[in-house]
UniProtKB/TrEMBL annotation:
Name of the protein in question: Glycoside hydrolase family 65 protein
Gene3D superfamilies the UniProt entry points to: 1.50.10.10
One Gene Ontology molecular-function label: catalytic activity
Taxonomic lineage of the native organism: Eukaryota, Fungi, Dikarya, Ascomycota, Pezizomycotina
Top-rank lineage group of the source organism: Eukaryota
Biological source species: Zopfia rhizophila CBS 207.26
Record's keyword terms, sorted: Signal
A biological process term (GO) from this entry: carbohydrate metabolic process
Amino acid sequence: MLLQPWSIALLSLTLVCPTSAKIDRKSIVRQFNPKLNSSHPYSPIQVGNGNFAFGTDITGLQTFIPHNTLSSWGWHNSSLPTTVNQTSPADFTGLEWWTHDRLVPYAQPNPAQKEISPWMIANPHRINLARIGLWWGGRNVSEEMLQQRSQTLDLWEGSISSFFLLNGNRVEITTVVSPDSDTVAVEIKSQMVWKGELGVFFDFPYASGKNKFDAPYVGVWNVTGNHSTVLRERENGAEIRHTLDATSYITDITWESEGAKMERLNNKTHRYVLKPAQAGNWLSFTATFAPELAKNVDNFDAIKAKTAKWWTEYWETGAFISLPPANSSAKELQRRIVLSQYLLAVNGAGKDPAQESGLVNNGWYGKFHMEMVFWHLAHWTLWNKWTLYDRSIGVYDRFLSTSFERAQKQGYQGARFGKMSDPTGRSAPGEINSLLIWQQPHPMYFAEMEWRKYPTEKTLKKWDHILTGAADFMVSYAWFNESTKVYDLGPPMYPVSENTNPNQTINPTFELAYWRFGLNVAEQWQLRQNKSVPSNWRFVKENLAPFPVENEVYVTYEGVKDMWTTPTLAEDHPGLLGIYGWLPPDSRMNLTTFKKTIEKVYQSWNFTYSYGWDFPLLAMTAARLGDAERAVHWLLDPNNQFDEIGMPIGGTRVPTPYFPASAGLLLAVGMMAGGWDGLEGPVFPKTWGIEVEGFSKAM
Ligand SMILES: *[C@@H]1O[C@H](CO)[C@@H](O)[C@H](O)[C@H]1NC(C)=O
Ligand SMILES: *[C@@H]1O[C@H](CO)[C@@H](O)[C@H](O)[C@H]1NC(C)=O
Ligand SMILES: *[C@@H]1O[C@H](CO)[C@@H](O)[C@H](O)[C@H]1NC(C)=O
Ligand SMILES: *[C@@H]1O[C@H](CO)[C@@H](O)[C@H](O)[C@H]1NC(C)=O
Ligand SMILES: *[C@@H]1O[C@H](CO)[C@@H](O)[C@H](O)[C@H]1NC(C)=O
Ligand SMILES: *[C@@H]1O[C@H](CO)[C@@H](O)[C@H](O)[C@H]1NC(C)=O
Ligand SMILES: *[C@@H]1O[C@H](CO)[C@@H](O)[C@H](O)[C@H]1NC(C)=O
Ligand SMILES: *[C@@H]1O[C@H](CO)[C@@H](O)[C@H](O)[C@H]1NC(C)=O
Ligand SMILES: *[C@@H]1O[C@H](CO)[C@@H](O)[C@H](O)[C@H]1NC(C)=O
Ligand SMILES: *[C@@H]1O[C@H](CO)[C@@H](O)[C@H](O)[C@H]1NC(C)=O
Ligand SMILES: *[C@@H]1O[C@H](CO)[C@@H](O)[C@H](O)[C@H]1NC(C)=O
Ligand SMILES: *[C@@H]1O[C@H](CO)[C@@H](O)[C@H](O)[C@H]1NC(C)=O
């Protein structure tokens, strides 16, 4: 065969490269398979596919503990208020605040509208689709009555095996969720099936839209008159339509057990029981959830095989890191990494960006946050898991038109992204919600990471209108201050840490840096397309206010009083450290000043109230300064806990789990493993002798 010059070059490259043995991913992953012997009250062992997850107790179902079955599509609205002028979101007026020289309307709860504002915050809310558990032939069985309980989640194949004895009868249960439909598939092996003493119940709750944090269990079980279920039987199958006001969906159940029957338990509840035929000693079924009938044609075995294939590919593709088990810190970090990888594929890889508590329970009514999109998704890019990233990154395109409307209503150019969102792109009213700005440059960050991986015309086109809309807003939002002759950000605004007086907050360090980063990318984007750069983009970028410095250190915002000694200001997210670590260094940054700032934070900050993504942020800063020991220390900080199945506890101010801790961990580890512009990775403690493969470089 004739070799082209370039292929010879490639060949010789391959030959001179030292051959690095491939990491044995499977044995590392399986070392961390969670093994339990009792149900956990709030951390369920889950199976899921990113858009749908099923949380289980010790039986591999939801027999004793009503863990949740959540999806990216199951949402519900409570009935609208009936008060005059408050009967629809269109009646919502918000509030006007002075913003420099004019009144700007913000989507903030209006005290004069006591009905519609809270409705818009609490609606729509995510629903728990069903509870599925073991039915004991009409007897009462409690968890304590089960002997030799043991349960293993096989991370490598995405399947839960549960085992126990009841009165000497062995029961083995396998639980999986299909990678390509919202189907739970279960196999139960036991003589109790044959004896007619073991079946499966399906129960359907009403929506619970009353609580901001609906955890650990979602749904209301005792208002059975407020919703309805209808059973339609067929041979070896049944469909149950569940209607909650305007929300309606179908659970399509198919079983492989000749003669088994689905019956409604009684007319007072929405509980159905799949009773076995006294024929064999096993029962298997699939339950597919969808808004409209979506017939699943695969049986349990087919779904189990598909699931195993999907998960194996998930582990085998993209990046991987192997840390030395001999060091206990390294081992704990490896455990957190592997379990986070599993949990994020289950909870943080849907058609919308992830909710902070994923598909485990409902935080913030199950809504997701546009400023958190960075923390939920950025790690996929460093780990080269682009197909999972692709599932939800389209949110910027989908929400662009509502973002243009938001900016226009406020008298700005371009597109202003919202905050606490539901799948329609409406942002919930809120003082903080309406005054945060750090979500704006995220699309620039993502576009740039994509460009580095896929420097194609398609990438340029995909992001062009989004970056233009985002940049136009950023430029129009910056306000020219006649006395200082620079462009100011705010007031009013909230910085990353949400802990300042918005009417006094001006020129926060992190937002200034992120604005410059974003406008820089937007400018490059135009140049790459041989388009001219709007002159005001450059002008504003170059004339943004300088980073605020007081007593030789950067501060959260310009003019902040006593920030290092005011407890409420020296806690929460240390956003200002994000300018070096999370973000690549800005040409305006003074490294001497920054190093003094980081020392000041280390001395003065109270991390008790820090959130799960603050520690990865600190780790990225430490790593970029070359301090690998410190970076690892932050990732293992006592305020940053992951429980025995890897659920991120999250901190004292948020419900458990708090997945930005997991996604942030993978982002920091990805950066430390793959390096960044100007530095080859990995950056880990020298004595560790780690192995890495497949990472992309950070910026
Ligand atoms: C269950 O597991 C815990 C923790 O691993 C262990 O301490 C306990 O002895 C186990 N209990 C039984 C009954 O196996
Ligand atoms: C809830 O109501 C809003 C506003 O009327 C509507 O846009 C949305 O589609 C509704 N969602 C559901 C799940 O009914
Ligand atoms: C409802 O709105 C209309 C016009 O916006 C106003 O004239 C009327 O007073 C309002 N009614 C109440 C009860 O607030
Ligand atoms: C900020 O100023 C607006 C008026 O522009 C006022 O309505 C609001 O209450 C002030 N907020 C705070 C937190 O002081
Ligand atoms: C099962 O327990 C419930 C409450 O704990 C009780 O109301 C019911 O009568 C019991 N059923 C049987 C069959 O023992
Ligand atoms: C349903 O249960 C909740 C919590 O236990 C209770 O507060 C409520 O009053 C009950 N509602 C009805 C209609 O029984
Ligand atoms: C159930 O319906 C009743 C009657 O319409 C209503 O008063 C009650 O608030 C509803 N319960 C819930 C939890 O929405
Ligand atoms: C429920 O009601 C239907 C009709 O109203 C009746 O035919 C059926 O027997 C009832 N089922 C139970 C379990 O009570
Ligand atoms: C593990 O590595 C860390 C980081 O280098 C080091 O501080 C620690 O002492 C090591 N632990 C053990 C038990 O060797
Ligand atoms: C102009 O900038 C100065 C310094 O940041 C600030 O104190 C002042 O409030 C700004 N002027 C206006 C009108 O916002
Ligand atoms: C950085 O700041 C220090 C004061 O902390 C100053 O001495 C130094 O000149 C500054 N460096 C640059 C490059 O501006
Ligand atoms: C940090 O904040 C917590 C909660 O307010 C408080 O209990 C603790 O004393 C503070 N720690 C320090 C060192 O100030």
